[in-house]
Amino acid sequence: MRFPRHPDIIKGRVRKLLRTNAYEQKETEAALRVVRAGDTVLELGGGIGYMSTLLATKRPIRSIHSFEANPHLIPYIREVHAANGVTNAHVTNAILGPNEGGIDFYVRDPMLGSSLAVLEGEVDPPSVKVDVLDAKQVFKDIKPTVLICDIEGAEADLIPHLDLSGLRAAVLETHPQWIGPKGINAVMQAFMDAGLAYYHRGSHGKVLCFRTDW
Fold first, then answer.
1. Strands 207-211 and 169-173, how do they pair?
2. Tell me, what is one Gene Ontology molecular-function annotation carried by this entry (predicted)?
3. pLDDT tens profile 114-128
4. How many CB atoms lie under 10 A from the CB of residue 172?
5. Amino acid 110: pLDDT
6. Average of pLDDT values for 20-39?
7. 52 near 81, Cβ under 8 Å?
8. What total of structural domains would you count in the chain?
9. What is the C-alpha separation between 28 and 182, in angstroms, rounded?
10. Where are the beta strands (DSSP E) in 69-173?
11. CATH number for the domain harbouring residue 175
């Protein structure tokens, strides 16, 4: 895959991991295990466009729809898609929630360290307003068969509110250091309630994989 140069995004550790094919390695292995031809993928947390480009180029999926909170990453994600000839990936600058509205997103350097939460010790960090879209309506409109999620600790609040019943599989990076055992249990329970079982072959450490058909 090709990633255009960008002084604020492709640098340091990110650049090294991309060069050595080690970027998001656990998530990559999990996603390639469960995503199949014809899948419609919904990605929460678009990052640098890595996962959407990976799946659009390595699997004959129907489409992938990425929702990324950081407005500064949106143009770069589109550059990555274009550089790799991807035409069935769509990116939206928004997050999903139980109700429509807006929320503060805190922008940091490095850019990939930005998040919805104020970190310990921070005082008035710079922020931008990001749209919150109704999660149920988005799922109804897109009808995803696979969910990919890496939203820096917001998973414990969001996942239990989603309608996961139409999914065949999911890959989720959890953040136990922020959401704790209670948050992990809430996420696991939400998938189990939707009929998805923990898939050990795709899971590794904080990356959890779920399937309905194994």
1. antiparallel
2. methyltransferase activity
3. 777 676 777 777 888
4. 23
5. 64
6. 95
7. yes
8. 1
9. 26
10. 89-93, 95-97, 101-106, 127-134, 146-149, 169-173
11. 3.40.50.150
Give the span between the Cα atoms of 139 and 121, in whole angstroms. 36
> Mind listing the pLDDT tens digit for each residue in 176-188?
988 999 999 999 9
Residue 47 placed within a domain:
yes
Q: What is the pLDDT of residue 212?
A: 94
| Domain assignment of residue 204, given as a range | 21-98+134-211
* C-alpha to C-alpha distance for 189 and 191, rounded to whole angstroms: 5
Non-local CB neighbours of 186 within 8 Å, separated by 6+ positions? 156, 159, 160
Alpha-carbon distance of 155 to 183, in angstroms, equals: 8
Q: Is residue 125 part of a domain?
A: no
What is d(CA 77, CA 92) in angstroms, rounded to the nearest whole number? 10
Q: Is residue 105 part of a domain?
A: no
175 inside domain = yes
